[in-house]
Every structure is written in C-alpha cells, then in structure tokens.
Amino acid sequence: MLVADRYRLESAIGRGAMGEVWHATDEVLGRPVALKLLLGDDSDAQTAARFRLEGQTAARLSHPHVVGVFDFGSWDGRFYLVMEYVAGHSLAQELAGAGALPPERVAVVAAHTAAGLALAHRQGIVHRDIKPGNLLSDADGTVKLGDFGIARFVDDPAAALTTAGQIVGTSLYLAPERALGRPAGPGSDVYSLGCVLYQLLTGRPPFHADNSTAILYQHIDTDPVPPSTLGVPLTPDFERRLLAMLAKRPEERPTAQETADFFSTGAWRGAPAPVFLSLIHI
C-alpha cells in the first residue's frame, strides 16, 4: 500500500489508542520511516487535533534522543504522521526479556531520556506519558523518546485533564500532583522517568496495586522502597538521585537537565565531579 504517493507500508509495528504504526519506505528519499495512521477517519475533530498536535510538538524537537518527525498530512480520509524509524525495540520489550536491567544500562537510559526531556522542557513542552513503551532503543543502545500524543505546553490550563475530566497518562508512572488533578509541569516528567528507572532496576514499578485508584493514592502518600533493600546493587549516589526524582513535591526533584548531567558524567558511580583546568601561558 502506498500512502500519499510516497510512503510504502512494509509491516505493522504496533497499534495504540489513536493510530497504528507501520514500518514504511519513503520512496522519494529511499529511506526507512515509521508511519502512524490515525485510526478511523479525520471527521473526529478532537482526535484529529490531538494527532496533529503530536506531530507539531515533536517536530519542534530536534535532538539525538527524541524520535524525529519528518512529515504530516491527510490521505484517503485519514491523517498520517511520518517519523524517524528506530530499528530496535522499546524499553518495555527490553525489560520483558531481561526481567531487570543492570545499573550501567539504566544510567544510559536515564541520561538519554533526560536529555531529550530537557530539550522539550526548554521549549515549554511537557511530555506527560513517560513509560517504558515510549522509550525506544536502537541497535547501539541509544535511547530515544517518542510518542508526544498527550504532550502539552506548560502554560496550557487544560494540561492535567482531558475534556472528559479524566487524568491522562499511565497510573503506574503518574506524578503525585497529577494524581491530585493539578497541571503537569516539567517535574512531573522527571517523576515519571524516576518510576521507569525504578522499574528497570527492580523489575517492578515503585507502586503497584489491584486497581489504578489505589496506585494513585500510593503516589500521593507512600514513600518508595529503596531499591538497595530489594537487593539491587546501586551506589548510594545513584539511589539518592533516584529517590530525589520520586520526591512528592515537584520543587524537590532535580530538573531533567540536572538528571541528564548526573547520569552522563558518571556521577552516579560516586566518581568525583570533573575538574576543568585552564592553561595559563606565561
């Protein structure tokens, strides 16, 4: 099948709430791409607007750790979004195969994801749906942040709720302020990333229960169990930073940029901070 006389659909990758994603070939440029087709037709104005927003939001973010957006349009009564094809797997798949990941790998995931988030936050964009399935890893282990389907700008007064009054996002990774119905901010993404890192290290999210309501209450009222007490071989610096990301109050969490710097410089190992010496010519 050829979409918009340009993109040949090769094989289905997955299906989400709004659309189905295909591995496709851009026959004009001769490169592989990922193409998301909106489910149904474009007559549903709200769904179409949300789909368009995903493309417009991600297109503003050019970064090695954010899935790039190449094109957007309408074809055969359906909207489509053309994105960078990441030949690899999601962190959800990686976690399912391994059960838990070593701290060295989790530090890479943290550094890469936080770097992509830091760019989004500088642009005034909050992702609002950080979870293992939205983090993609290529064959070299580079992690890219994808799926800006429910992202919102920081100053959007409707950022916390849908028009139906429902909190959007995945309850396992939802920040306490969002569980209380308050607007999402950059710190909400950092908290969600902390939940993901915790799950990658321990094999389970920091909070879990039989229903989403109970999980939301745990996000609000319950302190996470330190991973080291579960037998995870973390350095004290790594664990302190992770638990800081899971602080109940947004202002007590590190920023995405601080998180990226911490995990990319090796500070999580307990190594001293790098010292930069200037050469003085006499």
From TrEMBL:
Domain of life: Bacteria
Record-listed E.C. numbers: 2.7.11.1
GO MF annotation: an example: protein serine/threonine kinase activity
Protein kinase domain mapped to chain residues: 7-263
Pfam families, per the entry: Pkinase
Residue numbers binding ATP: K36
Keywords carried by this UniProt record: ATP-binding, Kinase, Nucleotide-binding, Serine/threonine-protein kinase, Transferase
CDD domains from the UniProt entry: STKc_PknB_like
UniProt name for this protein: non-specific serine/threonine protein kinase
Biological classification of the source: Bacteria, Bacillati, Actinomycetota, Actinomycetes, Kitasatosporales
